[in-house]
Amino acid sequence: MIFSDLPFGPLQRALLASLQRLDPRADEAVLACAALCSEALAAGDVCLPLARVAGRRPWPEFDFALPPLAELHGLLRASTLVGAPGDFAPLIVEGERLYLARYQAYEQRLAERLLAMSAERPEVDEAVLSESLTRLFSFNTQQPDWQRLAAAQAVRRRLAVISGGPGTGKTTTVVRLLAALLEQPGGDRLAIGLAAPTGKAAARMAEAIRNAKASLPLADELKALLPEEARTLHRLLGSRGDSPAVRHDAARPLALDVLVVDEASMVDLALMAKLVAALPPQARLILLGDKDQLAAVEAGAVFAELCEGRGFDAEAAAELQRITGQAVPIEAPRSALGDAVVLLSHSHRFAGDSGIGELARRSNAGDAAGTLNLLRENRADLAWQAEPSQAALLERLEQGYAPYLKAARKGDPSEAFAAFNAFRALTAQREGPWGVSGINEALEARIKRRYSLPERERWYPGRAVMVRQNDYALGLFNGDIGICLASEYGLRVYFEGEDGFRAFAPARLPSHDSAFAMTVHKSQGSEFAEVLLVLPESPSPLLTRALFYTGITRAKQKVEIWGLPARLAEAVNTRAERAAGLAERLGAGPCERSQPPAAVTATDQLSLF
Q: pTM, whole model, 2 decimals?
């Protein structure tokens, strides 16, 4: 086989060149598996399941097939490029999975650390905890009160994994569990940190906690100890540019006793492994997220794998009932993490008759027929355009954004942001006429014609932009939304801040895109009054149940879906899976999860050892 003829990108070619320098006589099948492993990482998988490719032509347009599984195993084990776990080799075979060595190490070390944390029991005054929980969660009438149970476990364990959909009260839970921790003996000395994967998520988390403090039944001196600032995980760990190394690790741990990570479903395997390694031995880790949302852009679906282990055995249920007064359903834990995982199921946002809530339930259950039937019922909070055309879509978007553009021309940032958050277009993909770039370009052309603006004019009152890269000097982060408005100093781009709005000259902004339409991935963690979700016209690997669920649950009041019935059915029927071994290492059985294409850094892939 001549590798130069195969459809490899620069990353795969660099990897193969590195391997061939290490072993010029390497078997073609071994090199092909290495390239496929690299491709799997780029698609979001942590490893390459050998059974998926053995005996097949991995690149159908080329006349090359890998040998059967048993023979392939033999070739891999005989290669100097391949080792077993713990060996110093660029590729690692473990069972039926092939890893780049770094990712096998990430997964193994993360599992070991999580298992150790879940087994540890910090000293807790249960009488004080019981009183705290009763007072802090007295507003809840649900039975069982999963918010209270989640808080109890977070205080009683070093590891807590709390998953819930929109409106299930994750922020309320974490603020009150932190209050319960502060009320424990010595709790006033705890160093508590807040973090999230992105700057936007970190800012939103800090704001939510600041707002929740006001109504908290907690002594003022303890309220003052609740953190009000959150950092991105990269900034917390001290990322070093293009290097996979970080400043804080096991040798230089973080100076924290408690770390709360919001939007944990967006954290990839490499980052989660580095984070857990950087925690001091006695620190508590609390992970918040939604297991049904899209996973990280990079490799791994760590949060979803952790949530597979949920369950309370009889002993744990009895302990929790004694402390909380709540009857806890007994369910055999599915992994060694067991009762460290709590799912919040009651949505305070979507009432029982909510069309959005029912749509989320049916789509998560993989009920494509039920999903389509629900959309045909003409619910007040659901709309469906089953025969979309681009012209009609642009007409609808121009209508949807008309109130915003009218508000933006007044020049009041507060009014403009409120109007912009009332309606948002989300797409499954970036490119193409049904993607972010195509919609933004076409919609902006219509806006410029409406307001008689020059076609080449980049900046105008009402232009909305999204920042694409972090700029710590300006305090702007990837995903931040800005709105261009007229001011006494000319056009300025306004961003929401902790103390009002911050204005920047357009020329000062870091890399950015127009943001009338944004991808579902970029919308994670955001909320809008109304959402218009655009699905691609042709089949796409991006269309998955997780993407559909994430898109529709960004809406608080109404969802409007533009997509052919076939694309809707594909989205609901396609369960997002990524090949990984973390759940199995934690005792939850084999796991394969594949999500839409991801972007693994060249630095991580090429740092073989």
A: 0.83
